[in-house]
Amino acid sequence: MSYGFLVDSRKQLLQLNLRDVKLAEDVDCSYVARLLDGYSGADITNVCRDAAMMSMRRRIAGLTPEEIRSLPKEEVDLPVTQQDFIEAINKTGKSVSKQDLVKYEKWMREFGST
Question: Which residue ranges does the record assign to the Spastin/Vps4 C-terminal domain (predicted)?
Answer without folding.
Answer: 76-112
